[in-house]
Amino acid sequence: MDPVTRLFGAITDRVIEQPRRVVIACLVVTALFAPGMALLEASAGSDQFTDGIEESDALDRVNEQFEPAFGGDDPTTQLIQRDTNVLDRRGLLDMLATAERLDERDSLRVTSFSAPAMDVAAELDEDADTPEAARDAIERASDGQIEDAVAAAARDPGFATLLSDDFNKESGTASASLGVVNHGFPASADTQAIQSEAQTVAEEAPGDITAFGSGIVDDEFQRVIFDSLGIVVPAALAVILGLLAYAYRDPFDFVLGGIALLMTVVWTFGFTGYAGIAFSEVLIAVPVLLLAIGIDFGIHTVNRYREDRAASAPPETAMRGALGQLVVAYSIIAGTTIIGFLANLTSSLPPLREFGLVAGLGICFTLVIFVGFLPAAKLLLDRWRAERSLPEFGSRPLGSEDSALGRLLPRLSGISRPAPAVFLVVVLLITAGAAGYGAGVDTTFEDDDFLPPSEEPAYVDYLPGPLQPGEYTATETINFLSDNFATSEDDTVTIYVERRMTSDAALRSLARAERDPPDTFVTVDGRASTDSVQGAIDAYASEDPEFEQLVEESSLDDGRPNRNLDRIYAELRDSPYDDFTGEYLADDDRSTRIVYAVESDASDAEIAADARRVADRYRGDAIATGQIVVFQAVADTIFDSAIVSLAAALGLSAVFLVILFWLLLGSPTLGLVTLVPVTVAVATLTATMRLGGIPFNAITATILAITIGLGVDYTVHVAHRFHDEYARGGDVDAAVITTLRGTGGALTGTWATTALGTGVLVLAITPVLGQFGLLTAASITLAYFASLIVLPPALVVWVAVVERRPGLLFVGRLFDAAGAIDGESDTTDRARTDGGASAGGAAADSPAEAFEWQTDPRASDDDPSQKR
Predict the structure, then answer these.
(1) pLDDT tens by residue, 194-226
(2) Region entry Disordered: which residue ranges (predicted)?
(3) Local structure of 42: helix, strand or coil
């Protein structure tokens, strides 16, 4: 007996002979892992995906070296005011009253406040440097004085930066304004708590003013995960438990299967908590996977056990036969699935690497629980029931011969039965076309992927109170800022240049890069529309004659200075344009940034590519960055990760399956055959994504790994059962029919439960989770049908090639499929009774088959039930 067979035999013996110890050990491990779940922390938002991205690192350097349009190094809160006119008396007083209330809160540590209202008050009273003093100045002034003060403040170029795009200098009107509150906290302070308190104050203040900031966005990023789970989990549990109840049809088995599933979640996320891995949106896929694989293992174990119990085998013998076959399939499935998920470690995105690690460990835990705990607990449960003479409620296996499902599933083979080779060729051609079409699926990465929609779905209104989600405003506020303020990054890209900006050619190199802009860039008089330190030079020169003369004396014909740059920069920093200069020139004059306006209707991919080409024009170390470029870089990385992990998963799975089928079943080529329907499912899924307009994003990037994992799960069950049945009887038709009926019945229960259970993710608040749920259900469905429709003819072709029986492909198989299925009972019985002699030789060369016949020393030719 080979070492692998001895190992599986030892595992089976331990589970069957010492079930109480196995159950107690698993419960102890569960108790040890459970506290780790309390250590789980949420990680949400787009920032977790940008770590290590070159363009993102450049953007971080930009934010560190250049003064922002508003705010400083301290935590800041934005006050967004909306009104008919935010620059009239009432609008100014509303903003100042809110700022004053924030200033009075000692817990907020307000150090400074800037807003158009403060600028207007300063024109009325130069000593009005606090919100309270500014409010007094506005209240004392007449309407005419306020209008004059607004006109005077508008002459400052920085005044309009905090006003909406509809600001009219002549009339002194604007429909929205921004106020910036600086807090005296360190950078590591809890901005969520600070801005949440500020939000409460703003809601109680007069006028339509909203507090906003990164802390509020991060809070909604995290809350939407748990609110989505609060809606989805009860719905998923209701569907899964209802279908499991039908699959098991026995309350004791139902409860036992549920406990086993719960243990897999506790083990996996207990470990995750102990390991300090934050629960992100991507990890929402992990419990879906654990439920899918766990439900599959549980239903198959109980179903195979019931098959042998129906043949009057004692409980220990029936469980020994079930484990004797399934432990091999489970090991192959777990090993291949783990490899598929660990392929995500090739990704450069930390969340995808964490997903691969957690999912791989989760599958390990699932294997231990469903090979150890569930069979041992099932034996103890049946002993306990027998001692008390409790009735059996639903011991008949799914897909039994006299059931509707048992009659329907074998008919699936009728599709390919007349000419399996031709059918397989047609399927592969369609798969190639689907793969080519699916290769064009889009890839996106946006903040909106993680936020709830600006309007909640209609069904939310019908949810009971405990399931009602909280109120979300971040998406609406972000959209408002993007639509109404020029500070939005939606239509700009940044070129970050590291070079000595006091060199003679520094500003002239900026001018050269602006010539002949690409199509996606906004042009003005044939040049790119930019904001840079040159803009500050031109603006100040137009107001100060002495500075204008300095610039002219330092420039050539094009007006770009090439001398005296250190003096020019020094005078700019002493001018009213100091803030504007600081936005584009570093304090040490060793780096600069240039902001290019881009066409709003251009695609992010086109804009990012053009921005990189423009960056190449600069002398010095230049890199394209900005939100569009960073997010496109992440999207490209997501797509590359999906393709690389797909190739790695398929390649490693093929090698692993070949080795395992060779070691365990003596049939290495059978491992390659099992990947045929998996490939079909993956190609069809990508084509479905493109057809449905569903892109790869931070969440759906995991779907290919899930499809491989579940696809291998289903196909290994079918291939392994077919191998056993064919080795036993030597009849291809009988092996296919028995496999479709027995294993197909269990797979049907698994498919219905997991597809519908995960499909309820469409109820999640965030659209991206709804897309993930839809794709998961689609991948499960495709894997199910591929394993029952595509794999059987592939197995027939495999037998024909391996045993050189070309008649199986065409000749002798052109008969009516329905008639063949009608006579399947006789075929099956004949295979089991008359085919024993031929089965013996086949089984002798199979380590798994040898193990199966040797697990019970009482097994004999006279009792076939004990051989299973």
Answers:
(1) 888 999 999 888 889 999 987 888 788 777 777
(2) 824-868
(3) strand
